[in-house]
Amino acid sequence: MAEEQKIFKVTIDNITIDVPAGTTILNAARKIGGEVAPPAMCYYSKLKGSGGKCRTCLVEVVSGSTVDPRPMPKLVASCRTNVMDGMVVKNITSEKVIDVRKGVVEFLLINHPLDCPVCDQAGECHLQDLTYSHGAEQTRYEFERRTFVREDIGDYIQLHMTRCILCYRCIYVADQLTNKRVHGILDRGDKSEISTYISKAIENDFSGNMIDVCPVGALTDRTFRFKNRVWFLKPVDAHRDCDKCHGQVTLWNRGDEVFRVTARKDEWGEVQTLSDGKPGWICNTCRFEKKHASDWVIEGPTKINRHSVISQGHYVGNVGMIMPPDPLDKVLFGRQPHLLLDIHDVSKVNQLEVHLSELEGPAVSNTFNGDPHASGHNVTDVKEGV
Ligand code: SF4
Ligand code: FES
User: Fold this and answer.
1) List of residues 6+ apart from 126 with CB closer than 8 A
2) Which of 249, 341, 354, 381 has the most CB atoms lying inside 10 A of its own CB?
3) What percentage of residues in the chain have a pLDDT greater than 70?
4) How far is the CA of 317 from the centre of ligand 2 (A)?
5) What is the pLDDT of residues 84-134, one digit of tens each?
6) Residue range(s) in the chain whose domain bears CATH number 3.10.20.740
7) What is the assigned CATH class of domain 7-93?
């Protein structure tokens, strides 16, 4: 007969719940939900072995268990500490935790540039959220930041090493989802960096999932780079028959133009678990090569947390296939805009026949001045972060 699963009682921020023995404090807190769940920059429930690297999930254990109610002497990483029966934990109710988390964010930002205005991850970056909720107004760091020689890791993924927080999630994706890992964290201490050994390209079928797990903008989608801000796009759930993955994705549209394809995410920003209990990783064909609305069967608008900046940019329409209404008619009360110019009459930029989402990289002057397919795909700087 199967052994009965032990159930432990744990209290987090004054809320008591029952969880099976072996549950971590972080997952117990996620069961309660909302602010009670500590932030997690390196733990990812769908990746075995993740967690324990970033220290953003530290909590205070004020009572270890019913049997031994002494407090734990130091803050513990909630993603790596299992609950005990009768354990009492403080997260947002602990001044110590709030203070230490502020310090952790300050450390994470020592080398991470504050380039959110030009970073494709802005609007869905966990470090950006963490900085707003726990960061200090100013850094006390006075030394030179790390710089890196820019490395090309293939056609689909852009690496910005200065933004990397060394969470290891992308390494676990490569280890656990693809059959050939060609990148890793090289060197030690403040010299550590993500690299493909001898600059090999990352090109296995599921490598694009590294973009979805990266909590910051260190790994971004090269086919979407600089094309649009996520809050100007409308996410819709869609699917297609795919022979490599389950084909269930989120499309990021403006009108019927598909700018980006990602896996569907849950409330913790992780890839959603599918109805068959498996994680919803998607293949590179769905992610990078199916950029036409006709490739997909649209299911409906993606549910976005109303506190997210992405929900602020939603425009009404038939599940993302209709362009946002032009506000001019409304503000001009039906009059013709005599005093306004059509920018296309006087400028060579922003031409309608140039489809930004179909370019290989960011638009360059030549894109609007001769070759509508020219892009900055091959433009490389010698050093990143300088
Ligand atoms: S590149 Fe992104 S996912 Fe990979 S270790 Fe750095 S921060 Fe983590
Ligand atoms: S999420 Fe726990 S240490 Fe990073």
Assistant:
1) 39, 41, 215, 216, 269
2) 249
3) 88
4) 39
5) 999 999 999 999 999 999 999 999 999 898 889 899 999 999 999 999 998
6) 7-93
7) alpha beta
